[in-house]
Amino acid sequence: MDISDLKLGTILMYNNEPWQIIWSNRMRTAQRKPVMQTKLKNIITGKVIEYSFKFGEKVEEADVTREKASFLYADTDGTHFMNQESFETVDMPLDVTEDQIQFLKEGFEVQIVRFNNKPVSVELPIKVPLKVVEAPPDTKGNSGGNVTKPVKLETGLTVDVPMFIKEGETIRIDTRTGEYIERVTS
After folding, report:
1. How much is the pTM?
2. Which of 21, 29, 43, 181 is the most exposed place for a label (fewest CB within 10 A)?
3. Given strand 109-115, what is the order of strands in its sheet?
4. Is residue 142 predicted with pLDDT exceeding 80?
């Protein structure tokens, strides 16, 4: 593949390791060949680097597979998932999933990414619904502007939400940023 095939989310081989494109920008200046500026995240170690692919540079796509799995639980040994087709348990080390545990609750569906048939990372859905378990009461007169309050969710995550969100409600959270998106209405 060449630089015109590079898109957000593509997993490619760089220095004999699988890297995922998490940001890209195509640059073209007068009388110069185009360059694709990227931020790459190593899907095994989580390290992020910046690299600019030059016009004509050949890029090898990584041979990865994805499988649907359900989150079971997390403990001191790691994070545990169940493959939804084979029903086998897939165990991931805590250092791989430590940033993602705060969005996971029992039964959540995720994608397990395998490289060389070894599970290396977990891809979460972009939006996840979580229930508010602790919320301070809203105060009268705080309706002007963009006023927020911190609430605690069922996974232990704390997020800033608009003042009208109450305990017991379900809200959607962006797993990329950890920010409130919207209230879930039934």
Report:
1. 0.76
2. 29
3. 89-92, 78-83, 64-75, 109-115, 118-123
4. no
